[in-house]
Amino acid sequence: MKYIKWFLKSLVFGIVFLFVFNLVGRFINLNIPINFLTIMIVGTLRIPGAVILLVLSYI
């Protein structure tokens, strides 16, 4: 039960973070696509995960 709760919190955090990031990033031309893989990366790794995805999107 503890792992399911952690998984759901990570999922919600990833969705909210990517949504807010894309809203703010629209003004400075930054975008991270929202799909299950990116949500799980950001949900698990938090801010470093978003930075990794941002760097990988510009390579």
Would you write up a description of this structure?
With 59 residues, the protein is mostly helical. The chain has one domain (2-57). Helices cover 76% and strands 0% of the residues. It has three helices and no strands. The chain starts with a helix and ends with a helix. The relative contact order is 0.17.
Beta strand count:
0
How would a crystallographer describe the biggest sheet?
none
Beta-strand content estimate = under 5%
| Helix-strand sequence | HHH
Unreliable stretches covering 5 or more consecutive residues: none
Given the structure, what is the number of helices? 3
Distance N terminus to C terminus?
A: 39 Å
Residue share in helix = over 70%
Total domain units:
1
Rg of Cα set: 12 Å
- What overall form do the CA principal axes indicate? elongated
Mean pLDDT: 93
Instruction: Give the helix/strand class.
Output: mainly alpha
Structural key phrases:
single chain; 59 residues
Brief sketch in words of this structure:
The chain has 59 residues and is mainly α. The protein has three helices and no strands.
